[in-house]
């Protein structure tokens, strides 16, 4: 029972910190700041999905979290390549 309370607390903490990072994504000031903020939010969402899957005992959601993590990684690489090309012009 104590583990469940800890997981619920972790869930709320992750949601709260993700909401704080939204400020960085919206306000910037630069494109790299926004990309890093979006990457951090996506990573937090992956952890939130994993915590919820354990709380609900629906472990197939971990597969969804893994796919989202892979999409996040590929998206980050694509955005980094875009920024690199944009800097050379």
From TrEMBL:
<keyword id="KW-0812">Transmembrane</keyword>
<protein>
    <submittedName>
        <fullName>Cation:proton antiporter</fullName>
    </submittedName>
</protein>
<feature type="transmembrane region" description="Helical">
    <location>
        <begin position="61"/>
        <end position="80"/>
    </location>
</feature>
<dbReference type="GO" id="GO:0005886">
    <property type="term" value="C:plasma membrane"/>
</dbReference>
<dbReference type="GO" id="GO:0015385">
    <property type="term" value="F:sodium:proton antiporter activity"/>
</dbReference>
<dbReference type="InterPro" id="IPR007208">
    <property type="entry name" value="MrpF/PhaF-like"/>
</dbReference>
<keyword id="KW-0813">Transport</keyword>
<feature type="transmembrane region" description="Helical">
    <location>
        <begin position="6"/>
        <end position="23"/>
    </location>
</feature>
<dbReference type="Pfam" id="PF04066">
    <property type="entry name" value="MrpF_PhaF"/>
</dbReference>
<feature type="transmembrane region" description="Helical">
    <location>
        <begin position="35"/>
        <end position="55"/>
    </location>
</feature>
<keyword id="KW-0472">Membrane</keyword>
<keyword id="KW-1133">Transmembrane helix</keyword>
<keyword id="KW-1003">Cell membrane</keyword>
């Amino acid at each position: 029972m104590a583990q469940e309370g800890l997981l619920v607390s972790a869930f709320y903490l992750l949601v709260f910190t993700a909401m704080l990072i939204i400020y960085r994504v919206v306000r910037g000031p630069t494109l790299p700041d926004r990309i890093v903020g979006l990457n951090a939010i996506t990573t937090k969402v992956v952890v939130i999905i994993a915590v919820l899957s354990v709380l609900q005992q629906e472990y197939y959601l971990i597969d969804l979290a893994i796919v989202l993590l892979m999409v996040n990684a590929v998206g980050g690489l694509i955005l980094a390549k875009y920024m690199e090309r944009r800097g050379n012009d």
